[in-house]
Structure formats: C-alpha cells, structure tokens
Amino acid sequence: xxxxxxxxxxxxxxxxxxxxxxxxxxxxxxxxxxxxxxxxxxxxxxxxxxxxxxxxxxxxxxxxxxxxxxxxxxxxxxxxxxxxxxxxxxxxxxxxxxxxxxxxxxxxxxxxxxxxxxxxxxxxxxxxxxxxxxxxxxxxxxxxxxxxxxxxxxxxxxxxxxxxxxxxxxxxxxxxxxxxxxxxxxxxxxxxxxxxxxxxxxxxxxxxxxxxxxxxxxxxxxxxxxxxxxxxxxxxxxxxxxxxxxxxxxxxxxxxxxxxxxxxxxxxxxxxxxxxxxxxxxxxxxxxxxxxxxxxxxxxxxxxxxxxxxxxxxxxxxxxxxxxxxxxxxxxxxxxxxxxxxxxxxxxxxxxxxxxxxxxxxxxxxxxxxxx
Amino acid sequence: xxxxxxxxxxxxxxxxxxxxxxxxxxxxxxxxxxxxxxxxxxxxxxxxxxxxxxxxxxxxxxxxxxxxxxxxxxxxxxxxxxxxxxxxxxxxxxxxxxxxxxxxxxxxxxxxxxxxxxxxxxxxxxxxxxxxxxxxxxxxxxxxxxxxxxxxxxxxxxxxxxxxxxxxxxxxxxxxxxxxxxxxxxxxxxxxxxxxxxxxxxxxxxxxxxxxxxxxxxxxxxxxxxxxxxxxxxxxxxxxxxxxxxxxxxxxxxxxxxxxxxxxxxxxxxxxxxxxxxxxxxxxxxxxxxxxxxxxxxxxxxxxxxxx
Lengths: 372, 308
What we know:
CATH architecture of the largest domain in chain B: Orthogonal Bundle
Shape of chain B: flat
CATH superfamily of the largest domain in chain B: MetI-like
Number of strands of chain A: 12
Strand order of the largest sheet of chain A: 6-7-8-3-9-10-12-11
Distance between the termini of chain A: 31 Å
Largest interface: A-B, 32 and 21 residues
Order of helices and strands of chain B: HHHHHHHHHHHHH
Largest sheet of chain A: 8 strands, mixed
Number of helices of chain B: 13
Number of helices of chain A: 15
Number of domains of chain B: 2
CATH class of chain A: Alpha Beta
Structural class of chain A: alpha/beta
Oligomer: heterodimer
CATH topology of the largest domain in chain B: MetI-like fold
Number of strands of chain B: 0
Structural class of chain B: mainly alpha
CATH superfamily of chain A: P-loop containing nucleotide triphosphate hydrolases
Largest sheet of chain B: none
C-alpha cells in the first residue's frame, strides 16, 4: 500500500471532482463563496447530510456525550472516510444514520439526518425502515458475529433480496448465488447452502458485502470492514469494495482508523475526536498539510520505512472519558499547541480552503506546519 | 453422525446396567418381608411362606437374583408382581395415562413457556414481565403437592370448573390441571430461560445486521432471535422430558391417575421389588432415549454442532 508513505494517487476523477467542489458546511448557503458559485450549480444537493447530530448514552455512571454536533455530508458516488480512534463516535454516527442504535442507552438529543432532503429522524419507524438496506446498506467489522450463525448464507442473502424486490424464494436464491459470484466467492452455487462458520474471515466479509448489495443501495456504510482480517485479505476486501462502488455507482462512507486504507480509497476525509468532527479535507490535502493537531498526531504515528529504528511517534495521553469531556477544545490536554484559549473556548470551524476546515484555534499555524 | 449414535447407544447400555443394578440393590436391601406385605396383617402359614420363597427365589444370594432378573429382562420378560400379575401387562395399562399426561404437560411447557418468555423479553420491564417474574418465583418456591392440592381444591371442589380427579376413563380436559401442575416447575424455568436467552440474543451483532437489512421487528425477533434463543431452551426441555414422565408420581397420586407414577408409588408402598425395578428400568430408558434425541435435535437447531 503506497498510500501509507506518500500522498495517495487520485482514484476516479468524477468522484474526486465532486469532493473538491462539494459544499463543506450546511449546503443551502453554498452560493456564498464567490469562486464556488459557478461550480456549485453543477453539483446536486448531497445524498446524505448529517447536521449537528448530538447523541448521549444514559448509563449508570452518568450521561456520556457521545456525539456533540457532528455534521458531515456525502455526495453521490463519493467515498467519504470517517477517521478516528475507538470511542470517537464514528460508528455511533453510522448507527444513527441507519437507525439501528440501541435505545436505551443511546438517545439522540439534537440534529437532523437528511437523506435526499428527507429527515430520517423525523419519520415514523415504518417509513424509516424502507431506507434501511434499500437506500443505505451497511457492513460491519466482525462478519462472523454479524452474520446469524444458525441460518445459511444463502438464506440470509436471499432474505435481503426478497425484502427489496419481493421476488419468489427460488428467484431470490438464484440472485443470492449471483451476488456471491459478484463478490467473487468461489463455488458460489455449491456454497450457497453453507453456514457462516464454514467460511474463512475474508469470505464471510464478502458475504456481508453481498448481503448489503442485495437491495442495490445508493449508499454503502462500511464500518471498519477490514479490521478483523489478515493484512493480505484486507487489501483484497478493500479492492473489492472500491471496485464494486465504482461499478455500481454507489456512494460510500468508510469508517476506519487505518490511515493506509483511507489513502487508497477515499475521496474526502472527516476526522472525529471525542464526539466532534475536528477536521474535514480531501485526502490529498489532509495527508500533505493536516490542519488539526490531532490529525497531525495520527499521521505522525504511522510507521515509516525511512524512520526505521526510531521510536514511533505517539499522541500523549488518552482519549477523554465521554462522561467527562474537557472544557473548551476536547483535545487540549493532549495537544502540543494548547494555550489558554483552548481550555476555555470550543474552537470554531476555521476554513482552510474549499470544502476544508479544521476545528482548531490555531488551524492555520498547524496547516502551515509551524510548531506549537 | 452414525458413529456418534453408536457410541451413545453403547454408553446407554452401560448406564442402563449400572442404574438397574443400583435400584435392584436398593430394593433388595430395603425389602423386609415381601410375603408379609402381600397379605397385610393376617398371619402367613409356614407352608405358604416356603412355597412363595421357592417360587420367587427369595433365598438366593443377591447377585444370583440380579443376574436372573437381568437375563429375563433381556428376553423381554419384566417378571411378575408378587400378586402374580405380569409387570408388562401392568405397564401396558399404565403407560397410556402417563403418556397422555406428560404429552399435555410438554405441550404446556412449549407453548406457554416459550410464549410467555418471548413476551416478557420483548416487553422487558413491563407489567407482564414483572408479573411473570413474580409468578415463576412463586411456582418454583412452592412444592408441587401444595400447589396441586390447593388448585385441586379451588378449581375442582370450590369453583367446580375442572374435574377433581381424573380416574381411568377421563377425557383430555380432565388432564389439563394435572398437566399444568406437573409442568409447573419446568414451565417456570422455561419462561425464565427463554426470557434470558432472548434478551441476550437481542444484543447480538447479527440482530444489528438483521435490522440494518431493513427487516421488520417481527421478523428479526420471530426468525433471527428466536431460532438462536431456543437452542438452550430446547435442550433444557428435552432433558426434563424424562422428569415429566417419572416425576408424575406426586401428580398422579393427587389426581388419582392410574399411570406409571401411581404404579411406582404402589410398588414402593408394597415393597414389590420386581415392579419398582421394572418401572425404574423403563424410566431409565426413557431418560436415555430422550437425551439422545435432544442431542440430535441440537444439531438440527445449531448447524455449528457436528457429531464426530
């Protein structure tokens, strides 16, 4: 994976353009930037738009603020990477989009999730269910536990097919085999009746993908799809996802903490920390000139070939407990740039270019590479 | 699979020989004077005593008696009661009553147990959930005969909604109360187990996947969760099938049902060794076969189980 060590090559010119020109803050006022005006006319409204999403977990230990005003959008046929440590809220945001949060303990306390202009959070469950799987599909990290152990993979894929198309059992079964072929499971016809535990990790993740594609969604959310896999298999799965996304013209939200994966596949990145988005940029800019100290720390902690023997750079300290998020900028206790203002004031989004911002008081200094 | 069954059958033979030996030895040790027990309070003439002793080999050493008994058993001869009645005939008459009772009890456990467990899990923390929690604790805490006699009095004698006793020629409705009494503890446990199992499975990752597909809640719970949740429940119920048949001693006595449990009680009361050992032997076989069936059923419910 060359992307680990150098700025990534651009994949798919069409989607890259969409990323460059995509509106960066709530889209209705896209006309405000004069340079943008001409280009935005060509860009459709985002497919998916998460606005100021706030979410809490009510636990015995108190109320944990898991999401604190998360906003991001996804354009058609675009790959958006959501990057962050565990607990940063990246998966929870995805669950909120899908409407599969465990409530309780989770409770959405504010914001909206617009899919093609319709607010998913303000529709009855019966209406919302039609978006799940059909408009937005999702694949999960651990395919072994995410697949039902007591039903054959064919049953589980066919079940999704029937939901979307209402076909007969026999036709759904045939389509399940086709989908298994599509995700390149060898001997699909023979293996359609087998159970999840009879497949290898990589094959199980392919089955998850086949299942998610069964209803031909416009958006695919991949929640750490390769984390549980061997490195060689990781690359195969990512290649498959990238290829399917391109062929089927889907948009994809790729949730990951793996910077290498991001560089290869994504058009645009949002970085999350302690339930907030700290930086948004396209891949190239983010790798070259990270605009937030946290992003900078993440990139510095990637092992490099030319740094062999030297200790790995780490971000000092630990992510905050979500029941006790620091005042001001939540990253300030770990931040080399931190000053008094960081401890008292939540940093605003500082625009760093078209479709690019960083939530840091010293965003420009960080982006320019000046030390804190 | 075939080898698994063969191995289990061989194990069953060993268990069968062991248990019959223990039961036979216990009855042998406990027997004071079966001839006196037969005639009750009246005196027994020495001539009659000598005749009976010879006819039933009562003077032979224990091990000879046991081996003779087992030899007959293998030829399908369960022996005769001291009264002279063949035990196979006794069982032929008694089993249908017990089967009717335990089949109905099993049905109650399956329908009410799994149904109530499902509802209290889905409506966790609701009125139904709390009510069943209290009720199941009460049922588990109260001895069967207390529950049996009280319900018999209330429903049979006082309110007259159900027959007081069953007897020999009763219809299936008469078995309803005895079946519920017989099932009560298994039922209460099945409710708790189903509830716990479903709640645990509701948190499983595959449920999130099923939801993400856009399946209805009914289908997620009724198909995905239920199938997984039933694995421990069916295992538990299967293991108790033997208990439902053997455990009918108290229930059959309360409701005067002339089944196997009733006959077993009579046999123990009369110190009738052959009857007790014969019935227990058959019950042991019921236990062993039902546990084998459960093990095989387990593989049907859970494809991850393979018998090598």
